Amino acid sequence: MSESYDFLFKFLVIGSAGTGKSCLLHHFIENKFKADSSHTIGVEFGSRVVNVGGRSVKLQIWDTAGQELQVRSVTRSYYRGAAGALLVYDITSRETYNALTNWLTDARTLASPNIIILLAGNKKDLEDDREVNFLEASRFAQENELIFLETSALTGENVEEAFLKCAKSILAKIEIGELDPERVGSGIQYGDVSLRRLNRQHQQQRHPNCSC
After folding, report:
1. For residues 203 and 208, what is the distance between their CA atoms, to the nearest angstrom?
2. Considering the entire predicted model, what is its pTM?
3. Pairing mode, if any, of strands 43-52 and 55-64?
4. Do the beta carbons of residue 8 and residue 188 sit within 8 Å?
């Protein structure tokens, strides 16, 4: 039997190699830590249906390789039509934090211009080895209009919240008309046909002279 949902959102997990992107995805999908994680080559994929603000939403999540450079040309195509992204750095690695601006530029250039991005400072369980403090990252997130959380793929802290916060923000923009699931490349699809009809009625009420 096929699973039913109101919306489908295309998500990305991006950031430098070794930040724990695959572990975050695995913990969110399987609710456990992936102990034997190796570097992703190319792209990994996972999906899960969650309840967001009373709506059933299927998150279709693409985990892109962090090694990039030679792999980057392959993974760039996966940016297209993404509605949301987790931008991940390792709180114990200044190098992964310094690379955030490049990842952010790629996401906003290659994905939807309206992409919702959550900055995730991963490996929160390694507090003693921290190289990037919370306030500094929080300031970066504010300046770049990102949602921000520190996470731990090992303990599961804030893993669920990261994906749900991002999804909730996308849903809010759909409800106020800033995002249109019927626009090609929005990264959003209807799962429920009656919702599509309802959205069209709302569009016509807002724009009575529009032929949409």
Report:
1. 8
2. 0.83
3. antiparallel
4. yes
